[in-house]
Amino acid sequence: MDKYNVGIVGLGWPGERHAEGVQGSGLGDLYAACDINEERREKFTAKYSPEKVFVSYDEMLADPGLDAVIVSLPNALHFPGTLKALQASKHVLCEKPPTLNAGQMRQLHAEAEQRGLIYFFGRQMRFSGAVQAARKAVAERRLGDIYFAKTMWVRSRGTPGGVDGWFTDRSRAGGGALIDLGVHAIDAAWYLMGNPKPRTVSAQTYQKFPQLVKAAVFDVEDSACGMIRFENGASVLFEVSWSANLTDDIPIGRLGTRELFSTTLFGPKGSIRVVDTLQLHPSVKIPPLSLFEDKDGELVDSELPFAPVRHEFVSQMQNFLRAIRGDEAALNSSVQAVLLMEMLDAIYKSSLTGREVSLSYL
Ligand SMILES: NC(=O)c1ccc[n+]([C@@H]2O[C@H](COP(=O)([O-])OP(=O)(O)OC[C@H]3O[C@@H](n4cnc5c(N)ncnc54)[C@H](O)[C@@H]3O)[C@@H](O)[C@H]2O)c1
User: Fold this and answer.
1) Ligand 1 binding pocket includes 75 (Cβ within 6 Å)
2) What CATH code is assigned to 4-124+311-332?
3) pTM of the model
């Protein structure tokens, strides 16, 4: 069976993981790589040996041998980078956040549909062994109907910079901790709940730690919290931060400061908690997947076993490439990306207006 020729634009941490995804997938070849930064290009080429290396994204897209593009650029370039690739008839996997707003994402959805191309947003954590096992437990109705979820990705100290400090610059990032970590945290709960349609949002963002940021521009939020209600009556409470004076119930993370990415789903028969242990310091032992079940009125705690996944980016790439082949549905679809961006838009709007926001697309 022929393999797909994949090109990656943006060769930072996620660009490298996607290269491993392509090379481990068995379904694609690492055909091209592109970055304007020479050091990044050289490091990437030495590690992954792509067939072709480009400085210009336009030149990479013009290559007739290229089938699919992975966009790992700074957030503000996700929309133009994805649109250009679709217009060049390439399938696209674009890193999170899908775009800067729902309007952009609706345009990409329409473009991909019209051209019969696959659009896929990067959310490798959906493919982890713990998340897949939690999703199965929910589908098998071990918890009953999920009525509530609590999700957080909080850091006490940990603002990302990126090349040139773009993460804290609204014009290049679109937002701060919410659009960066919040996408992961909200999607973690929403995906496990079966992607219900959001109805209303009440939320607040804050910027309270400018002294911790070294970048030249810092005009985004460093934390956010809020509540989303869904049409099936369920709700999600979320909390995210790059900076906060977190209390000692939050463990030490991989950066050596307090950090936790945890999602808990509540049902009448039980609750399930997924903790992303990759974010924890090696000395911290919290089980990745725990079940809290009602057994004849008694609450029984247990760890849920699951088959670990070798590399989340490999599993994600396999789903993307199989979706191109028409063998599987894309798990991280453009329809879901639109709804995710609708939720983020509503969160920012609610914070700005100080009011609950109804999602009016329905
Ligand atoms: N899925 C995840 O867990 C995860 C983790 C980290 C980052 N991300 C996402 O990946 C994206 C990139 O993040 P990063 O941390 O790698 O940022 P980064 O700043 O480290 O890397 C971005 C790269 O894009 C290159 N670039 C910028 N403009 C370009 C252009 N016009 N043409 C070619 N190359 C260009 C830069 O030179 C740089 O090497 C972000 O959207 C971020 O949200 C996802």
Assistant:
1) yes
2) 3.40.50.720
3) 0.97
